[in-house]
């Protein structure tokens, strides 16, 4: 499962259509408004219809979870780009 509030952007590489653009939107929006439920991800501003369909498909499959933000996973704010190239 992918924890929307605590995962790294690279976890989305295994899901077609998510990495890097949609994954970064999910991470960036979660920093501003942590997800209380997996359905909250559908409220990200500026999502295209295709992106909404991709998200809904993964919600339906049970891919996502939304646990409270943890400083252990969010310290240093490197969930989006840790400088690994």
Can you give a write-up of this model?
With 85 residues, this protein is mostly helical. It has a single domain, classed as DNA polymerase, domain 1. It has three helices and two strands, in the order βααβα. It has helices at 21-32, 49-61, 71-74, and strands at residues 2-3, 64-65. A two-stranded parallel ribbon has the order 1-2. The protein starts with a strand and ends in an 11-residue tail after the last helix.
> What is the CATH domain class?
Mainly Alpha
CATH architecture: Orthogonal Bundle
Task: Please tell me what the overall shape is.
Answer: globular
End-to-end CA span? 25 Å
Radius of gyration: 12 Å
Tell me the domain tally: 1
Number of E strands: 2
The total count of helices amounts to 3
Strand line-up of the largest beta sheet: 1-2
Sheet with the most strands?
Answer: 2 strands, parallel
Strand content: under 5%
Helix content: 25-40%
The H/E string reads EHHEH
Q: Spans with pLDDT under 50 lasting ≥5 residues?
A: none
The CATH topology is DNA polymerase, domain 1
Question: Given the helix and strand composition, which structural class is it?
Answer: mainly alpha
Mean model confidence by pLDDT: 88
CATH level 4 superfamily: Photosystem II 12 kDa extrinsic protein
Provide a quick synopsis of the model:
By secondary structure, the chain is mostly helical.
Annotation keywords:
85 residues, 3 helices, mainly alpha, two-stranded parallel sheet
């Amino acid at each position: 499962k992918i924890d929307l509030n605590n995962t790294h952007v690279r976890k989305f590489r295994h899901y077609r259509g998510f990495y890097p653009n949609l994954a970064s939107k999910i991470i960036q929006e979660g920093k501003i408004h942590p997800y209380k439920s997996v359905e909250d991800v559908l409220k990200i501003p500026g999502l295209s219809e295709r992106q909404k369909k991709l998200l809904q498909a993964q919600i339906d499959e049970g891919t996502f979870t939304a646990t409270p933000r943890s400083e252990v996973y969010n310290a240093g704010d490197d969930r989006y780009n840790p400088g690994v190239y």
